[in-house]
Amino acid sequence: MAARLSDKQHADAKAVFVQLAGAKQALSYTEATSALEALGLEIKDVADFDQDKSGSLRYPEFANCVAAAHRTTIVDARLLKAAFKGWDTRDTGYITPKQIMHLMESGSGLPLGISKADVKEMIEYIDRNGDGHIDFDELTKALLA
How far apart are CA 14 and CA 9, in angstroms? Predict the structure, then answer.
């Protein structure tokens, strides 16, 4: 049911599908996974969308898969936004390395095998503009990219 896709999502999905499927007009599970990746999406098991159990996805099945992946991405982004708001205790729009370290050390401490130096490296990687803070966009790009 491609109706759950916006016009742009449908056009993008159709273009990738046609390019990969060619004359056979179906995608293997591996091809469907690659097509989703090309669209910046992910689904745990594309076989779940193979309604006729043919071992491949025709376009309507692939479109359902794309729609489900978009819904999952939206939910993940909403959950991430809620988590970020909880971490941004001062409501500044960013979290500091000190806040991140506190979050990671609270409870049972840093995860096994993770050092403070590892956390510092992670923060430097996520802080793409180098301002010493992690804003929501930087965190989203690092986690959902």
Answer: 8
Q: For 75-97, what is each residue's pLDDT tens digit?
A: 566 778 888 888 888 899 999 88
Say how far apart CA 65 and CA 36 lie, in whole Å: 9
Give, to the nearest 10 degrees, the angle between helix 59-87 and helix 7-21.
130
CA distance 14 to 2: 10
**Which residues lie closer than 8 Å to 116 by C-beta, 6 or more apart?**
101, 110
Q: Are 69 and 45 in contact (CB under 8 A)?
A: no
Domains and CATH numbers, the chain: 2-76 (1.10.238.10), 88-144 (1.10.238.10)
This prediction has a pTM of 0.52
Q: Exposed, middle or buried: residue 13 (CB in 10 Å: 0-12, 13-18, 19+)?
A: buried
Distance separating alpha carbons of residues 22 and 11, to the nearest angstrom: 16
Q: Answer for the pair 93, 136: CB distance below 8 angstroms, yes or no.
A: yes
Alpha carbons within 13 angstroms on the beta-carbon side of residue 135 total 7
